Every structure is written in C-alpha cells, then in structure tokens.
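User: Just a sanity check before I run the rest of the batch. Below are the structure tokens for the first item. I only need the designed sequence back.
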C-alpha cells in the first residue's frame, strides 16, 4: 500500500523564464515504514500501555535480538529474471491469502484503540490475510474472527471457548505452549499494570485485577495458566474440537519432532516476542533447525522481530510458509486506528514485493535458501 498522500505544496525558485515550479513535500507525520508507527504510538499511548506492548522480559535481550538477528542476514539477489508480474499469494491450511504476512495473537487491543480487535480484524480482512486473536482479547470471539490460544486450569473454560470458536465459524485453534507461567516483565511490575475484565470470560471467571504491588497481569495469569500442561494435553484438546490445531512457541528441533508425533497441524516458531524466557535465541536463528526437523510434514510459521519486507523474504528463504506480526500492528492501531493497522500490513507487503522483484523472484516458490546468507556463512566465505 502506498504511504499517505497527504502533503503540503511549495514552490521552487524560479527557473529560466521566471517560471515557478510547484513541488510537493511530505507531511511531517507521514509514515513511510513500519518502525515509524512505534514512534507515533509512543507519543499517543499512556506510558503504562506503551510499556505493556513494547516491553520484554528481564534484560530484554531476546526482544532486541529478534530484530538484530535479521540485520545480520544478507540477501543474494538474482538478475535478468522476468519480474514484470509478482505473485505474493500463499495458501495456509487451505486458505488463500494475499501475501505470507499474518497477524499474531496479541492481547488487549482496546488499550491501543477504542475499537480494539474489531478494528484489527477489519484491517486483516481488507488486506486479505489471516488474523489470530488472543483469548486475552478485549472483544468477544463472537465479535471477531479469531482462534483461541491457551489451555487454562479450568478445562471447562477452554472447552467452552473452543466450542464458541467453532460455532462462530473460526478455522483453527492455536495453542501457545511457552506460558506455563508469565515471564518477568519488569516494566509492567514498575507500572503496576492493571488488568480489566476480559470480555471472553464474562460469566465464567473474573479477570479484573487491580494491583497495589507489582503487575496485575502477573497476578491474573498466576491464577489462570496451568503449569502442568504437557504433550498429552494436545490429545485432550483434539477431543473437544475438530478444528486444525497449531502450536506456538517451538524453538528446538526436539520439540518440533514431538509436535509432528503429536499430529498437530502446524508449528509457529516463536519466543513470545521476547516476553517470556529471556536469552532464548532469536526466532530467525532457529527457524531452519525446525524446518529441517519437520521435513515438510506440516506448515511452519514464524514470528518475532519482523519489521521489513526484507525480513519476511529472509524468513521465507529459511523455510517458513508465512510470518506473523504482532507489535507493529498494535502500534499502527494506536497511531491511526483500523487504517493504521492496515497500513502496517500493506507496507510489509509492498516491501516484500519490491524485495522479490529486486531478488529475481516472481513468485513465493522462487524464494530459496540460496537467496540468503548468514553472518557465519559470510565469514566462512571470506576465509576461502
């Protein structure tokens, strides 16, 4: 999607013949890339809410490394290829989307914008892509196209949530597996982050938690999450739904193999955006390990640190079928509502299209491992 056309007019100095030539200058707040939405969101959001979205756990090493790891991967373009037509469309679990860019499950969108997840879902629909909505959403599953993504201590709550999803026409369940307890998010502790009642749980359990000490989110999840969840619970989840089940939070080949053995329908390589266990590896650095372990048996998606179309291209080159974006969409939503969320998606799609064209890849299938080089590979090459 092209950036906003808002501009101010001016005039260049007169040229020969005294003719004044009109020029156009971009507005000061015109966003031209995804990162600029974060800067706008920081100006708009209350500090508590901005920190909740932007922060990671403990030293925030993984949070930073998710982004930095992409910077250390270089591209190896091909030339003299017909790229007059670029096809970015892909099929995920049988559903065709316009580009391999999906929306990751993120919580509490109404802290960013009054319309919350409804606006985000509309942005996804208008961009012809898939949105995964967190069970921690501030709108009900009946109001938004979503899948739920946790198993709670009270399994009857999980079962009811899944049935509500099925009855409302949802297409898959995403089980997040890296939250037996909440990571230590120090910004939320300092801000005494407040958790208000979540719409999906009204009538089932109170999720409204105030905090005079520490994070209200941490207090809520300590009573809600089940630390005993194990691989056998995937079979239990399958017993209450016929929908495809994907698991989110895989970072090793060992767990990838177990996921295949558990007959899940897809894997999302994720470290929870650096919000759970700090000093886990950046997702892009372990993606290829997981891809090799799975051997093409099920689709693999990846999230974490994706801020450019070149990042999407790199992830696809390492074997992902698509990427998920979280914080960028939230920041777009905070800055400009539904239109801002859509702009974020379309910016990444446009940048991916440009990257494909300049790399000699007219279709997604043309993107291969040979189009990227890791820092280690570059070093070895220089030693030859």
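Assistant: Here's the designed sequence for the first item:
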């Amino acid at each position: 999607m092209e950036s906003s056309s808002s501009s101010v007019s001016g005039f260049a100095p007169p040229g020969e013949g005294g003719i004044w030539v009109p020029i156009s200058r971009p507005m000061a707040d015109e966003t031209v890339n995804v990162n600029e939405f974060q800067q706008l969101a920081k100006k708009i959001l209350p500090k508590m809410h901005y920190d909740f979205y932007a922060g990671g756990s403990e030293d925030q090493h993984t949070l930073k490394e998710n982004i930095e790891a992409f910077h250390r991967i270089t591209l190896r373009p091909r030339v003299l290829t017909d790229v007059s037509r670029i096809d970015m469309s892909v099929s995920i679990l049988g559903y065709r989307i316009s580009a391999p860019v999906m929306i990751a499950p993120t919580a509490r969108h109404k802290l960013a914008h009054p319309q919350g997840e409804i606006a985000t879902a509309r942005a996804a629909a208008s961009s012809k892509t898939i949105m995964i909505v967190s069970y921690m959403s501030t709108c009900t599953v009946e109001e938004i196209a979503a899948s739920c993504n946790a198993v709670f201590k009270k399994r009857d709550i999980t079962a009811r949530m899944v049935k509500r999803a099925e009855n409302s026409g949802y297409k898959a369940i995403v089980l997040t597996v890296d939250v037996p307890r909440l990571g230590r998010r120090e910004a939320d502790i300092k801000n005494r982050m407040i958790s208000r009642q979540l719409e999906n749980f009204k009538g089932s359990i109170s999720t409204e938690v105030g905090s005079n000490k520490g994070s209200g989110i941490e207090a809520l999840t300590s009573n809600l999450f089940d630390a005993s969840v194990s691989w056998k619970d995937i079979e239990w989840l399958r017993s209450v739904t016929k929908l495809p089940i994907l698991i989110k939070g895989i970072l090793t080949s060992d767990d990838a193999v177990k996921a295949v053995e558990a007959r899940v329908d897809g894997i999302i390589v994720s470290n929870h955006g650096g919000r759970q266990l700090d000093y886990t590896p950046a997702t892009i650095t372990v993606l290829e390990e997981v891809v090799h372990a799975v051997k093409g048996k099920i689709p693999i998606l990846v999230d974490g640190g994706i801020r450019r179309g070149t990042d999407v291209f790199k992830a696809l080159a390492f074997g992902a079928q698509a990427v998920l974006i979280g914080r960028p969409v939230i920041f777009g939503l905070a800055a400009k509502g539904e239109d801002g969320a859509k702009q974020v998606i379309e910016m990444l799609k446009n940048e991916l299209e440009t990257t494909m064209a300049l790399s000699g890849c007219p279709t997604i299938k043309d993107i291969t491992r040979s189009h990227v080089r890791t820092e280690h590979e570059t070093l070895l090459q220089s030693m030859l």
